[in-house]
Write a structure and sequence with these properties.
This protein is about 70% helix and about 5% strand. It is mainly alpha-helical and about 325 residues long. It has two domains: about 250 residues, no CATH class; about 45 residues. It has a three-stranded mixed β-sheet with strand order 1-2-3, covered by helices on one side. It is globular, with a radius of gyration of 22 Å. The N and C termini lie far apart (about 60 Å).
Amino acid sequence: MTDINPIINFFAIPFSFLLVILSILALQSLTINIVSRRLGNISFKHPYLSRAMNWWGVFIHELSHAITAILTLNKIKEFKVSSSGGHVTHYSTRSGFFQWLGTQLISAAPAFVPPIIVAMLLGYLHYIDFENIGYDFGSLEPLTIISSLYLDLIPSIVKTVGLRLVNLDYSKIENIALLLVLTFSFSAAKPSSIDSKSGMQGDLQSLVERFYKFPLYTLLSVLVFTGIFWILFNWVHILFLYVVMFLVLLPILSIFALVCNYLFIRLINLFDSSSKLYILLSISAFVLVYYFMRQYTGEQYLINIISACVLVGILKLAK
């Protein structure tokens, strides 16, 4: 395999994959913070829209907690959603490592459940053939694995998803629904998960806190993660490749969705500073360019960008 000490290699190889995934999740978290701050830019002139967007973001966030709680055999005691925040109270009669692990998964759920929903929609609509997203991580060396993921798998996923999203045919209702889900489902609520036993509040805070408060469970989870990694890699290699692909795909989908949210807010800001005549002209220009030039092939994504630039350009000139 390599000249590295086998024991070190046993842990270093799976954690090289984990490091890449965590880095994309960190970028996702940064994007969420940027978009959440931007949402306040439209709250004064559009209070109802702002509250509706907040409510939907909170609903998706808390729904993620609730779904994961049920899947980890917890019981839901309270599910509350409002435009200003919400929470899920869950409990279980179990204790020990599996309850700790379930609680950790519940706290982390909003980072994964919304993009899973979008991935299912993309698959259901036959927009992305996940079997064609392949990669070769080269030799089993941590640096080679990391570089291959950054230089091969991630660019492949970004290109595949990006081309698909910018070439959607908006004359189809399912594409409009997909765009709405992308635009409004990822401005996640503030940390709000509540564990009725421990009383801890705050997803990320409680997640980290439980890691260092229960070091034996943390160590055991590391061993479980490493064991599952090698079992999949050695005996179910195809499943292993799919798991890695989806763990990389999910935060990338979130980032694309958050960009849609950001562009929507920026578009509203532009509309607010423009006259009705210029707004009407810009929308007409967008529709005309989009309708008469749409061909929906992999190379025609520039048409969509040109259409958006025409819209934004006219609004800019209207300032």
